[in-house]
Amino acid sequence: MHETESKGLPVIESAFAGLWAGYGLAVPVGAVAVLMVNMTAQTSFRIGASAALGATTADVIYAVIAVSGGATVAGAVQPFSTPLRWIAFSILTFMAVRIFVTALRRRSAVGLGERQGERMRPLRSYTMFLGLTALNPWPTIYFVALILGRQAQGRMSVTDSVVYVLAIAVASASWQLLLAGGGAMFGRLLTGTRGRVITAMASSVLILALGVSMVLGH
Fold it and tell me: Which residue in 78, 155, 160, 201 has its CB near the most CB atoms, within 10 A?
């Protein structure tokens, strides 16, 4: 009984960590999110949901790459676990600050829906936002920093890795679909200056909390 509980706890922790990581990456309303909301406002929730799933697919691909790469070097980096955690913390802190500062500097967004509008189809929407999200190298840095930080605390099992990636997928998909629904219901509300600052602040807090827990959790 005790053994079963001890095995289940890391899986639960991996699920929560994956959700936390997924929301930390997805929550900032950046350029791709602005395009998604604007396009959904101009078309339909079906089109916006396809775009959301495309963006989620790119996030999951990056997470899988990071998990696979992190697992192969886990043994090699174990002797350097303490400096590795601090490096990861520094990267995450830089990202949190960058997200917030970028949100403060933005003043306008490019509208995609006006040009694509009636010609947009679900498959085209999916592939377009998969490509747009995949072109952004930031998720790679983000997930690699998180995965290496977790590997430094202890080797992730296959089950933990799968649960972690699935949780990231759930977090990313739920937020992207929420944005698409927001585009259908509230139009440009989330893409305004105030909406960007609020979402950037929330994401910055999540990322900083991930970094702090990584350093203090060992």
Answer: 160
